[in-house]
Amino acid sequence: MKDKKTNNSDGANAKQTDLERNRSNADGQFMTTDQGLKINDDNNQLKAGERGSALLEDFILREKITHFDHERIPERIVHARGSGAHGYFELYKPMGEFTKAKFLNDTSVKTPIFIRISTVAGSRGSTDLARDVRGFAIKFYTQEGNYDLVGNNMPVFFIQDAMKFPDLVHAVKGEPHNEIPQAASAHDTFWDFISLMPESMHMIMWTMSDRAIPRSLRMMEGFGVHTFRFINDKNESHFVKFHWKPKLGTHAVVWDEAQKISGKNSDFHKLDLWEAIDKGDFPEWELGVQIIPEADEHKFDFDLLDPTKLVPEELVPVTIIGKMVLDRNPDNFFAETEQIAFHPGHVVPGIDFSNDPLLQGRLFSYTDTQLSRLGSPNFHEIPINRTIAPMHNHQRDGHMRQEINPGRVSYHPNSLGGGCPFQAKASEGGFTSYDERIDARKVRARSTSFADHFSQATLFYNSQTDVEKNHIIKALRFELGKVETVAIRKRTLGLLDQVDPTLAKKVAEGLGLEVPQPEKPMNHGVGADADDAQEPIKKTQKIKNSDALSMVKNPTLTDTIATRQIAFLCAAGVTGKSVDTMKKALEDAGAMVKIVAPHLGSIKTAEGKDLAVDQSYMIAASVLFDGVFIPDGENAAALKDMDEVKEFINDSFKHCKFIAAEGTGVDVLKNTDAKPDADAGVLTNQNVGDQKFVKNYIAKLGTHRFWEREKAV
Ligand code: HDD
To answer: Is 152 in the pocket of ligand 1 (CB under 6 A)?
Structure first.
């Protein structure tokens, strides 16, 4: 499928050429030291005699070891674990009415991008399948400079003010005395903090939902989270919320599956993204915007500046304006994915900030963190961070400066350099901040319009299907079950009760607790200090239900099975026709088939042909697949009694996957939980190679999971 690769246009080529300049190609070259000296022996250090001690003189050994000793840089404080990819953004329709940003006005330009998708809490080596928010950060290399949209896969956040960010992160990370647990929020300090922060309840609904355990990084929505501003060339401002809608739909795994994947393949998401791009199945997202005129700022039941609130799509529809395609894996993880430096303050003319107090704090944090992570104010000179726009200013020197600025002039204004570089007028593309009028007292306080912490949490919960609600209940039972301090569990139940009494009751049952009498949760945010802290309020929302918030009801859901992984449980004697018919149909629909057998190499089919084996039962596990097919043939006799096969099918059944078996393959189901029943998502067929059966299985796979099989809590 390699031919799917498109040629990037000018901008994309410019970035590629830029990266090319720094790409080392050792093909056919001699090995050298960092100084270019050809190396004669890379296996032995310089010694006094063959068995002698090392000689300090060995500058080649010292150079190699010194470089190795300094290979690591500090990992990101949050979002340490990430996957990156190159791609491009293409605009569908000019947005000049709202923004003057050039890349949002010219449909003929393909803007190169680099994306980094990450987990938040865990260290660099932690598992991909942690229950966590996913970072969704995109750097657009536009012709007017870099624009970074540094968002998440959830549209809201835990806290309203950046002042609380270090506390949130300290609470969720491994506890400081023993650094346990790794990449998990299921522990006392996190829930202690949450139980005292009612403003986190809406985000808690999202993180306890299946959104926090995506099936693939390619199957997640992305959000800019904050309200930003679009500014047009008349200097008019509109508020804007950014959405990324995945072409493959929004899908998740279930929690039991997530935990098992972490054991079987903790790089599951990283590998999935890498392989899809490598095979030419380029992931795509459409960019959507919700645009709100300035005049409507106060029209809502919530404050647009409050990052714990979303704007329901029923109130302001999402307009799709372009698409992002990921078409190239990085050449080097460290140089690109690790060294990329994002910053919500990297904007271009036409995009500006709102006064969201979380965003305002972020505008300080990101450059500051790059200074300690990348170690120099020259981090913008690293190839992956370099703009493709011309870059000239009077900033000079600093660690690892690459740029050589000739001449005497490093100040403005100057006459010796002819006044260069010049400032740009707004009409020449110079960035000007939106001239919002500010006339206020200097206070440490939070607006009372931020005080409703529960009604959108309730909206989210009410918008879920029963299955999704059950998953939230189970997640909360798991998380709070891991909390040892009973008072924290109870305090959290008190907050959940304000979101939905039935939810709180069901979680409480699992914990063997009663929902406590309504306690007045203190609202730390509102009021100048704890003495005049106010109670949070719950406003009636106009919107009671929003399908866009449910992954199952989501209107953008597609029935594609493209890139879905299907396991064929095989052994010697399998009927080739049964394998071939199903395989061809699945692959034609874009799915990927893996032949699983007792050993690697190949097996003989009933027709006497060799069938190449992709994975043995030792490596394959149901949790790494989206569906399973047991073909007809003598293989059934061998598979029936294999524990690995039984476990495979039982897990598929437990995790609500569609199971198909054909001919004697149906016998394999006998010793498992998956009894043949089309109404229960276990499809069987006696007429080997029947196209109707194959089509039906593909249609079922398109619905992702057979949720009805799941037992209610
Ligand atoms: Fe942040 C990294 C997203 C609040 C401070 N953040 C980081 C990354 C993403 C986000 C996606 C990883 C970028 C990458 O891949 O390199 N952060 C968010 C979102 C937030 C948010 C969506 C709320 C809406 N962050 C937030 C606050 C602060 C920070 C309030 C501090 C006041 N974030 C950071 C940071 C990081 C970071 C410490 C760590 C590594 C980095 O910046 O480059 O500066």
So the answer is: yes
Which of 75, 79, 206 for a ligand 1 pocket mutation test, highest count of atoms within 8 Å of Cβ? 79
Q: Which entry of 79, 269, 524, 704 is annotated as an active-site residue?
A: 79
Tokens of 464: 């879920």
Residue 551 one-letter amino acid: M
Q: What is the pLDDT of residues 56-113, one digit of tens each?
A: 999 999 999 999 999 999 999 999 999 999 999 999 999 999 999 999 999 999 999 9
Q: Is 629 in the pocket of ligand 1 (CB under 6 A)?
A: no
Which pTM value belongs to this model? 0.95
Dist. CA 325–CA 89, nearest whole Å: 6
Bridge partners for 119 per DSSP: 134
User: How far, in whole angstroms, is CA 145 from its chain's centroid?
Assistant: 25
- Report domain 47-207+216-381's class: mainly beta
Mutate to test the pocket of ligand 1, among 75, 78, 202 (most ligand atoms within 8 A of CB): 78
Q: What is the pLDDT of residues 386-403, one digit of tens each?
A: 999 999 999 999 999 999
Closest of 173, 134, 170 to residue 151, by C-alpha: 134
State residue 2's pLDDT score.
37
Residues 6+ apart with CB under 8 A from 652: 622, 625, 627, 628, 659, 674
How much distance in Å is there from the Cα of 78 to the middle of ligand 1? 7
User: DSSP string spanning 413-445?
Assistant: S-STTTTPSPPPPGGGT----------------
pLDDT band at 534 (very low <50, low <70, confident <90, very high): low
Residue 226 is among the residues annotated as catalytic for this protein: no
What are 147-162's pLDDT values in tens digits? 999 999 999 999 999 9
687 in active site: no
Domain ranges of the chain: 47-207+216-381, 565-709
The percentage of the chain sitting over the pLDDT mark of 70, rounded to a whole number, equals: 96
CATH 3.40.50.880 fits 565-709, yes or no: yes
Q: Which two tokens stand for residue 621?
A: 């596990």
- Average pLDDT score over the chain: 94
Question: What residues are paired with 229 via a beta bridge?
Answer: 239, 352
**Active-site residue (options: 8, 146, 152, 153):** 152
Q: Which of 13-17, 169-173, 610-614, 636-640 has the lowest mean pLDDT?
A: 13-17
Strands 658-662 and 682-685 come out as: parallel
Enter the tokens of residue 648: 């495979």
